[in-house]
Design goal:
This protein is mainly alpha-helical. The protein is about 60% helix and about 0% strand. The chain is built from eight helices and no strands. Helix 2 crosses helix 4. The chain is globular.
């Protein structure tokens, strides 16, 4: 039995093989931002991250699995969502950089949603989350701090992103609902 790579590493491998326009962290952030702001489909996501928006059959299957898992985690509302980031065995600098790239992708994906109000127009906490995610795109490791302090700061930021995404997903639900077309039926 072959051991399956962690989701982040698997996504990075698939994206590299598909000559993606971005890396795994930013691609996943783009997916999550798009899922928060609109009824994003797999094809919508692939169009944003892959040249020509297509992947070979095996890669498309893996990308669909990541798309479905992410969509399901967000939709459950049980706080099961986790941003795809490098594992704890990766250097803190790499993980921190990936978190900034994830947030950059998230903000890009969020901005692709039609009808999304400006961050300042979002309700209370939602506006604050978007502002803070913008700041996290500039995150870096403080070489003056000890490793434990940097690890704690990183963990705190990841948790903020995780919870903030779920909050935004819930606040933006009305934007994702399909707009009725045609005349409404009246029931008597």
């Amino acid at each position: 039995m072959t051991e399956q790579a962690p989701p982040f590493d698997e996504l990075q491998r698939v994206l590299s093989q598909s000559h993606a326009l971005t890396d795994a962290a930013e691609a996943h952030g783009t997916l999550v931002g798009s899922l928060c702001s609109m009824n994003c489909s797999l094809d919508d996501w692939l169009a944003e991250i892959l040249p020509e928006g297509r992947a070979d059959e095996h890669s498309a299957e893996r990308l669909r699995a990541i798309f479905d898992a992410t969509s399901s985690e967000l939709g459950e509302g049980s706080m099961a969502f986790q941003p795809l980031l490098p594992g704890d065995d990766a250097p803190i600098g790499d993980r921190t950089s990936a978190l900034g790239e994830w947030c950059q992708g998230f903000l890009y994906g969020l901005g692709t949603g039609a009808g999304l109000p400006e961050a300042a127009e979002l309700p209370g906490e939602a506006a604050e989350v978007v502002r803070d995610m913008t700041e996290i795109t500039h995150v870096d490791v403080d070489s003056q701090d000890d490793p434990e302090t940097n690890e704690a700061a990183y963990a705190e930021l990841v948790e903020f992103v995780r919870v903030g995404v779920q909050l935004l997903y819930e606040h933006l639900q009305p934007l994702r609902e399909p707009v009725p077309t045609g005349p409404r039926e009246t029931l008597h």
